Amino acid sequence: MSEFKNVTVVKQANVYFDGKVNSRTIILADGSKKTLGFMQPGEYTFHTADPEWMEILAGELEVCLPASDWQTVKGGEAFNVPANSQFTMKIKIPTDYCCSFLK
Fold first, then answer.
1. Selection from 21, 30, 29, 24 nearest residue 9 by Cα
2. Taking CA atoms, which of 36, 37, 44, 100 is between 20 and 30 Å from 27?
């Protein structure tokens, strides 16, 4: 899906790691939440409560998920993040993403 219709956009930006990772939250008509964001090169560790589906729209990164080895993910690919976990991403080139929070 290249666009979302009938959404609410939270105006306040989500800014992490001294501004190197930024996103905006959107809320779909069914109440589900997503973030649309952009990451500059660097290494970042995140913690999650809910499971996530991370779609890489453009760019390239390496991700280390719980109980897994590092894997390369490029634009057009995606990965699942388990609930209540920590994961690390090494952003190789500026990367555009969409994160869906699953319940």
1. 24
2. 44
Handedness of CA 26, 4, 18, 52 (dihedral sign): positive
Residue 88 falls inside a structural domain: yes
Whether 2 is covered by a domain: the verdict is: no
Does 3 fall in a domain?
no
Q: What's the pLDDT tens digit per position in 25-80?
A: 999 999 999 999 999 999 999 999 999 999 999 999 999 999 899 999 999 999 99
> Parallel, antiparallel, or unpaired: how do β-strands 42-48 and 33-39 relate?
unpaired
pTM score:
0.92
- 57 in a structural domain: yes
The count of structural domains within the chain is 1
